[in-house]
Design a protein that fits this description.
- Helix content is 63%, strand content 0%.
- It is mostly helical and 360 residues long.
- Helix 15 runs antiparallel to helix 16.
- The chain is globular.
- The two termini are 22 Å apart.
């Protein structure tokens, strides 16, 4: 479920991360990899962009307040900055702003190499910390800390190269671009990029595995991508008890609240206040616990709204209000995808309703 929220936050279609995990497992099968590397590749594919909200405000400044649009525009160039990135920047950065402001933003983006590395490093650090808190399998934390590493050492963290990059993340990097490029340009585009980036951004052996078979077979998802990804989960399926579930939901709360500096710990505060109110009303302990859990995830849909809308001073126009109203819809619809979260989803999705019917 959290992978679906990272899809929204990065401007990608729903199930992009799920399809990435499917591609990764099919590549791992071609490579005849062992179980440990498959597990890391699976969770690395699902959660590679778990730190994406860490710099949402800064990203939004480049695109007229729309961090999601900026993320989507640069998605295909993440692992290969260069001429194509420049073309995207000229089309995207400062869109809608007067030319002097656009030129200033462009200059800042193209010259601030250290700033770019710092932002990507923040994504990696946040994702790795979340992985540790979520109790994910050994190796996933280290893999997410290398989410933007390149085989040739020119990625982030700088200098991390070759087989020093966790194998599962090397797999996730290729798998993500295969799914993305297949959607944008078809199998032929995937083949061109794999050959071009082989030995640069990509582990040559993984790129070769993708090229050695039919690329269309790698990306085919005739079945529901959620179910297919669940079926391909490597090893023994992982489950969580109540305490582990609470830790997972607390990490989800912090993921949502990271979108803005001023919302830090907001969801936790909402959850604790709601649980205390439930106890004061004499509601059963299980009900109070569920209300607290719903409070933790109530604002996950916030990541579906461009940062500039939330931060805009003054009244919102009609289009902005419609965008804001959708955030509770996203919260409910995505959480409902998991049968274990469906009951929480109904409560969380109603957090802006009003007794007189004037809410949303």
């Amino acid at each position: 479920a959290i992978s679906l929220f990272t899809d929204v936050a990065t401007g990608q279609p729903q199930e992009h991360a799920l399809r990435t995990a499917v591609v990764a497992m099919r590549l791992a099968e071609r490579l005849a990899w062992g179980m440990d590397d498959r597990v890391v590749g699976y969770y690395g594919s699902l959660l590679r962009f778990l730190g994406c909200t860490a710099t949402a405000t800064e990203t939004a400044e480049l695109g007229g307040g729309d961090d999601m649009a900026v993320n989507a525009a640069f998605a295909a160039t993440v692992m290969q900055p260069g001429f194509e990135e420049l073309r995207v920047a000229l089309r995207t950065v400062g869109a809608g702003e007067p030319w002097p402001a656009r030129l200033s933003l462009l200059a800042r983006m193209l010259t601030d190499v250290h700033g770019r590395e710092r932002d990507l490093g923040a994504h990696c650090e946040v994702a790795a910390r979340f992985a540790a808190r979520m109790g994910l399998p050994a190796g996933v934390e280290a893999a997410l800390g290398a989410a933007y590493a390149r085989w040739d050492g020119r990625g982030v963290p700088s200098g991390l190269a070759g087989t020093d990059i966790p194998a599962g993340m090397r797999l996730a990097i290729v798998a993500r671009d295969v799914d993305l490029l297949a959607r944008l340009g078809g199998p032929a585009a995937v083949g061109r990029v794999l050959r071009h980036r082989r030995g640069g951004a990509y582990d040559p052996s993984i790129a070769d595995a993708a090229l050695d078979g039919d690329i269309a077979d790698l990306v085919a998802t005739d079945a529901n991508a959620w179910e297919l990804a669940m079926d391909l989960e490597p090893g023994i399926p992982r489950t969580a008890d109540d305490a582990q579930s609470d830790a997972l939901l607390e990490a989800c709360a912090d993921f949502a609240d990271l979108k803005f500096p001023h919302t830090a710990a907001h969801s936790r505060a909402v959850a604790d206040l709601a649980a205390r109110a439930a106890a004061a009303l004499g509601l059963p302990g299980g009900t109070a616990a569920d209300i607290r859990r719903a409070g933790l995830v109530h604002d996950l849909g916030r990541v579906s709204v461009p940062s500039g809308v939330w931060l805009r001073p003054g009244p919102l126009d009609t289009a902005d209000w419609e965008s804001v109203r959708l955030h509770s819809y996203y919260t409910q619809r995505i959480l409902t995808r998991s049968r274990h979260l469906a009951d929480l989803a109904r409560i969380a999705g109603a957090h802006h309703e009003r007794l007189d019917g004037s809410g949303y």
